[in-house]
Amino acid sequence: MTGRPALDYTPHSETDVRELLGAVGAGSVEELFAEIPAAVRFEGELRLPAGLSEAELMAELTRLAGADCPASGLVSFLGAGVYDHYVPAIVDAVVSRGEYLTAYTPYQPERSQGVLQSIFEYQSAICELTGMEVSNASMYDAGTALAEASFLAGGQTRRGRILVSEGVHPEYRQVLATESAGYGPRPETVPLAAGMATDLGLLQGALGDDVAAVVLQQPNAFGALEDMAEAARLAHEAGALFVAAVDPLSLGLLTPPGDYGADVVVGEGQALGSPMSFGGPGLGFMAVTARLMRRLPGRLVGETVDAEGRRGFVLTLQTREQHIRREKATSNICSNHALNALAAVVYLSWLGKEGFPALAELCARRAAYLRERLLELPGVEAYTAGPVFREFAVRLPLPAARLVDALVPRGFLAGVPMSRFAGAFGGAAGGGLDDMLLLAVTERRTREQIDAFVAAVADALSSGEVRHV
Amino acid sequence: MSDGELSTSCREEILGREPRLTIFERSRPGRRAAATPALDVPDRPLDEVVPAALQRTRPARLPEVAEVDIVRHFTNLSALNYGVDNGAYPLGSCTMKYNPRVNERAAALEGFRGLHPYQPESLAQGALELLHTLEGWLCEIAGLARATLQPAAGAHGELTGLLLMRACHEDRGRSPRRIVIPDTAHGTNPASVIMAGYEPVPVVSDARGGVDMEQLRAIVAEGDVAGLMLTNPSTLGLFEENILEIAELVHGAGGLLYYDGANSNAVLGISRPGDMGFDIVHFNTHKTFSTPHGGGGPGAGPIVVGEELVPFLPVPTVEKREDGTYYLDHDRPRSIGKVRTFYGNVGVLVRAYAYIRALGPEGLRRVSERAVLNANYVLAGLRDLFDVPFERRCMHEFVVSATPLRAHGVRAMDVAKRLLDHGVHPPTTYFPLIVDEALMVEPTETESRESLDRIVEAFRTVAREAAEDPEMVCVAPHTLPVRRLDEASAARKPVVRQRFPEDEGAAAS
Question: Which of B42, B186, B358 sits opposite A57 (nearest CB)?
Fold first, then answer.
């Protein structure tokens, strides 16, 4: 061996290598690769830094992590799809167990009952939250789940358009548009009305017998609460499916989509026990009515019995999937986000029947409090109208990005400037988003922090630094 | 885990002598684990916060359980599962190698785990530097120009790569429709082709297990070929000897070459897809770069491309300024858009970074050398028992056929189930489709000689049992928490969620 000592996860000694080579009838390691044509052999060494010891490796990664400022370093009001909720210790304890962490997709059910049962429990929890009848074993994220919902709707209705509210997160819409380049219904957007809820009049006008589905998000990208029941009614009247994109934690407080007639529910489940991790891995989820079950993409776990009548769990309806049906599958998805789904069911069990609504209610009350306090400040105006769950937008008397910058040295991440989504909105939201700030409040933000934040915003607004740049 | 480590009641459940309960069935009214933080803002009727009309009218029936109930439930369930941490996992094409624990520690650093995707870039310089550096390393390993780290898994990478291919053809003013796929390809390949709006065209394998050149020439001559997807080494564990000729043929017809990187573990630092002529490559970090599979994800499926495809990469890309700082570039007018929210599975990518950084070029090359050595060693131990469809040097995995056992009425599936009794995770079965009764074995480089010997011994024992007592093998497993499970009835009358006493008769149908 040459070079400096570095990590090596292979267990072979040099003697092992010699003896194994002898057993396979090869004179050298080189000989093992003799079938690779010389013209495509890579000569020399990859231009990568030399290997490290574990201590050196952690020193480098700690340096990189230290160049970041995690949410714990500042008081954060960031949201827009990823939320700073508390992840309890038992979630980490369960998901770091090697039996879950280092297992493959449960193709051998007799040796994978742990993962299979946990997925069954996850599916059950998602059904309870959403009021739907069938949930799959997870998707990558809300954006790809929305694209799959569109493909499902196209397959079910054999129609070629999908109407998506501009209240659906701009990145979810961008993923849908990108993945629809050659397949599925054509996405079209429906603008928002003043107050930032979807303009249902325009929705009605755009509907027709070529629309496969209508998609609204609850609460929407501005935090506004939509009239989901009316939108679902309009969709169904036109023979289209109704797809609800929802924040799962909001379902501790808000009407479950099953109650307003959603055919498909998708969303981002990061808030259910996954850390923010710069946006991934989170948890895409997807649930449908019983009649759409056979069109679901991805894994699905069902209960069954073994040869002696004992209870067990298996992957079921696999004829929907790519490893069986290849080009006739409902989707190409194979790996999903099983470990995040496990985190979600542990988290939801931890919250429990009482704790889940209690947490949602606390977020809503604290968000309402922050909004009221901010709107007392001169120059700060409401942008999202009506009640909100844990997120809302306000109009500032200056560009929001400038306020965000000014609040960092004061110890706060003030929120998401909506200007980063410039171009994603027409209608009532189209008139420039520079002054718009989106703020989210989780259970980790105390009244003390909220009061200090409002004081810091007031201070920044009245100081010269943000007004004149 | 041995029986002795389990509590008595759980042991009874795991051994199958008592019915297993779900977490919902452990619920008792009034129990709880979490305590909600105190209400510290002014109290007022909830209806004033959110109108009653928007509120849910019945609570979600989540379990009412104590914290200790949850920990015991999921700990005991874990004992019914099996991972690389438990033992050998020679599941072909899945590269179930050891997942270094230090990678978990790295991903859990608060500076990565606690980052919000929309915080100012100046406060995320470490994460951006990591992503930028990792991109560069993947380009070097693939022998190509730039990469996107957005795709969440291999199949998602395939779709992304095909969308890039589509954008490239459109840019050239062409709109070919057909993608050629060998009959040995993973099922995700044809499924991804459909989702990208293309038509999959199969090409058969020749007598040496490679692409049948004559048929490929005929397909290409028919025209309308947008590209070809190839796994190299193939799912037969064989290196495609005609790769340069294939590349020339497809490129000559205006097509692009897509490299399914599921089997990259064989060729790190030994042969680069870019040098083979591929234009688009995906890696499965959860295979090649040791990120844990998590029982079915999350993974990551970064895509690496050649110069011509760079303008079409998803937004944002991570760029470095002259002053050494990093930023996200959203302003790329020819980009295909976005294939997932934010920047990809960053928590997974941190682990992949840690793996490549720990090993360096020498360590990565050693990975492939020993993966190939181990596979050849296991094949040598099984050669006399099974049919070997292609008498060639295997790479990191191999496929044998269990047809010799058919005389005893024993199928590949039975071999797999009986291997479970012998403490070895079974190989992939019935894949690739072109080999009858296929058993696809990939030991990986992290199995020791003793472990490889145990794998071989388990196979040999099962083969002997198949001859001596085939009835016993055909109803295996015998020693696990459950016997063979009835998948047919599960599909006929699906029970896919918890049933509560109050909604009997309302199950999904």
Answer: B358
